[in-house]
């Protein structure tokens, strides 16, 4: 999923901080074995969505879904898994 982050981030117009946070979320999720069998584009998109919220650069699920060409449902599902992996509840 990391290889999609820079492209999606630039299309969304988010900061370097959001990009780094998204990669961190992907790394932690990968360590916990969440990546297997999941779409890398959806995973990257959800990580960027989560990172944008954490960095107060709010993007809607729709905006992120459009850029990544995945559904909002995919983003919601991956986002839930990722924030649990990160130990963030919210």
Entry summary:
68% of the residues lie in helices and 0% in strands. By secondary structure, it is mainly alpha-helical.
Topology diagram in text:
Blueprint lengths: L4 H8 L3 H16 L8 H15 L6 H8 L3 H14 L5
Helix pairs in contact: 2-3, 2-5, 3-4, 3-5, 4-5
Task: Please characterize this protein's 3D structure.
There is one protein chain. With 90 residues, the protein is mostly helical. Helices cover 68% and strands 0% of the residues. Helix 2 (16-31) packs across helix 5 (72-85), helix 3 (40-54) runs antiparallel to helix 4 (61-68) and helix 3 (40-54) packs across helix 5 (72-85). It is globular.
Structural class: mainly alpha
Beta fraction: under 5%
Looking at the chains present, what oligomeric state does this protein adopt?
A: single chain
SS summary, helix count: 5
- What's the β-strand tally? 0
Please state the average pLDDT score. Answer: 95
Distance between the termini: 23 Å
Helix content: 55-70%
Radius of gyration: 11 Å
Main sheet, how many strands, which sense, barrel?
none
Low-confidence stretches: none
The SSE string, one letter per element, is HHHHH
